[in-house]
Amino acid sequence: MTHVRTAAMALVALFLVVAGAWASWNSAQHVLLAKGREHGTLSVTACTDETCSGRYVPEDPSSSRRTLTIARSVAAEKGGTIPVVVKPGTDEGVRTGWGGGLHAWLPLGGALLLAAPLVGGGMRLPRTAWSLAGVGGAVLVAAFFAL
Predict the structure, then answer these.
(1) In this predicted model, what pLDDT tens digit does every residue of 98-134 receive, in sequence order?
(2) Is residue 86 classed as helix, strand or coil in its secondary structure?
(3) What is the average pLDDT across 66-94?
(4) Cβ neighbours around 79 below 10 Å, total
(5) Sign of the CA dihedral with 134 first, then 29, 107, and 82 last
(6) pTM of the model
(7) Are 82 and 76 in contact (CB under 8 A)?
(8) Do residues 136 and 110 touch, judged by C-beta distance below 8 A?
């Protein structure tokens, strides 16, 4: 019976971590694999509940794009200037640099924190659980200070 419990907790913890990585990769791929993509700065002029938009100044002067939107975060406020990379084929940007990279990995950090009690209590692996919680917490704290 203990093997069944351990296997079930392992599957749930694995599901949480994979789901967090999957959710993070949607934005993180543009930050991590930014070479060859369009870079520039976004001057935020307006924000809604979910997005902020504004004037886009590309690094490459041949770009025809002049406006851009970005997912709203604590760091995106009206009047701010944000370094961005443009998602290919869209008018949507993703914040670059340490702040953008850490912000993109927030779902994975949260998933690691959620998986830690399952690993510690359900699988009886306290050291592994503390490691998961430490890495997840470090991502969340680092993103807080980087933004």
Answers:
(1) 988 999 999 999 999 999 999 999 999 999 999 999 9
(2) strand
(3) 86
(4) 8
(5) positive
(6) 0.85
(7) yes
(8) yes
